[in-house]
Structures are given as structure tokens and as C-alpha cells.
């Protein structure tokens, strides 16, 4: 009896240690937008939005039942380049059919960038606030979390977030295509 009781107590203690370690790995949703260290572990939730696995994202993509929005920033041309230096933009590989709205996932957006995001979402949704929008970036990238959260504040009702982004998509050996960002008014 004592051996059995000791085994039960030991098992319960190990379970509590495992649960505590798992809980430490969870990232809480901040009350607002993430404004620093954008490449860090992300929450497993986004209040008001649907969080998608790779298989769920693939199913939605195959049925074309959502608009896909990539918010990965586009590296700017370095200002210190010598005159005459050729600058080549890095290609971006996206989930086919996506629109790329770079720089729209920061925690604080300039008015022009926020307007760019709003226009891009209106274009992607066809003006339908009920159309599903799937936001992504890279794995462990807060930018897509921020952009999805922001879309909720704009009144979009079917917001989904794919936290594994193109990293998870590529790991699943799903197709990617090279894309260019949606033009900005000043471009």
C-alpha cells in the first residue's frame, strides 16, 4: 500500500512539474500590439481570431475560401550604398494567391502605412467585412499577430492567423511562389 501511494505521489509530482514547465513555455497575449522583438515566440491564441494549423490553412487555401495576407517587412535599400551600386530586392516566397502588404505588422503604424493596410484589406476582402482573411508572416513572428489583431479593430469578423507562416508551409512541402508587394501610393 505504501509503495503504491508513493508511486502515485511521485507520478503526481512529475505531472505538476511537466505542467509547470509547459505553462512557462506559453506566451500570453499582450493587451495591445507587440512593439519590439518581433521575432520571438508568439502566443497560441489571438482573442477574436481563429488560430490555424498548417493542415487547416492548407484546406482553406485549397478551397479558396479566404484571402491570404503576408505582412513580412521588406528590407529597405541601405542609405549608405555608394552611388551606382546595384540594389537587388530579396525575393519573397509566399503562399500562392496571397497579397503582400509589407511593414503593416509593426505595433505602431504611421498613418500612411495604416492607410496602406486598410486599402489592401479592402481590396483582398472585396469590401466584405465577413470575408475570411488569413494573416501570416514567418514562424515566431509577431507581425502577423499584430496585423490580424488590427484587422479585428477595423471590423473584420472572420480573421484567421497562421502562426507558422511560410516556414511551416515550406516544412509541409506545400507550394510557394515568388511575389512582389502591393504597390504603395508613393511608389
UniProtKB/TrEMBL annotation:
Signal sequence span is: 1-23
Where would I find the Rhodanese domain in this sequence?
95-178
> Is this entry keyworded Signal?
yes
PROSITE patterns per the record? Answer: RHODANESE_3 (PS50206)
Q: Which Gene3D superfamilies match?
A: Rhodanese-like domain
**UniProt entry keywords in alphabetical sequence:** Signal
Q: Does the keyword Signal apply?
A: yes
Entry protein name: PQQ-dependent catabolism-associated CXXCW motif protein
Amino acid at each position: 500500500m505504501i509503495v503504491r501511494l508513493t508511486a502515485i505521489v511521485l507520478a503526481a509530482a512529475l505531472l505538476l512539474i511537466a505542467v509547470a514547465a509547459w505553462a512557462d513555455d506559453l506566451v500570453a497575449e499582450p493587451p495591445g500590439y507587440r512593439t519590439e522583438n518581433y521575432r520571438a515566440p508568439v502566443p497560441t491564441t489571438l482573442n477574436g481570431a481563429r488560430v490555424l494549423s498548417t493542415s487547416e490553412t492548407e484546406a482553406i487555401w485549397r478551397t479558396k475560401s479566404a484571402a491570404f495576407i503576408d505582412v513580412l517587412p521588406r528590407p529597405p535599400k541601405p542609405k549608405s550604398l555608394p552611388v551606382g551600386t546595384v540594389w537587388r530586392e530579396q525575393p519573397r516566397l509566399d503562399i500562392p494567391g496571397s497579397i503582400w502588404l509589407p511593414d503593416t505588422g509593426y505595433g505602431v503604424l504611421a498613418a500612411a502605412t495604416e492607410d496602406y493596410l486598410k486599402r489592401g484589406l479592402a481590396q483582398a476582402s472585396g469590401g466584405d467585412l465577413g470575408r475570411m482573411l488569413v494573416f501570416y508572416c514567418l514562424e515566431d513572428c509577431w507581425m502577423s499577430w499584430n496585423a490580424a489583431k488590427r484587422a479585428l479593430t477595423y471590423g473584420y469578423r472572420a480573421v484567421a492567423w497562421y502562426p507558422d507562416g511560410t516556414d511551416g508551409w515550406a516544412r509541409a512541402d506545400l507550394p510557394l511562389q515568388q511575389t512582389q508587394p502591393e504597390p504603395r501610393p508613393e511608389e
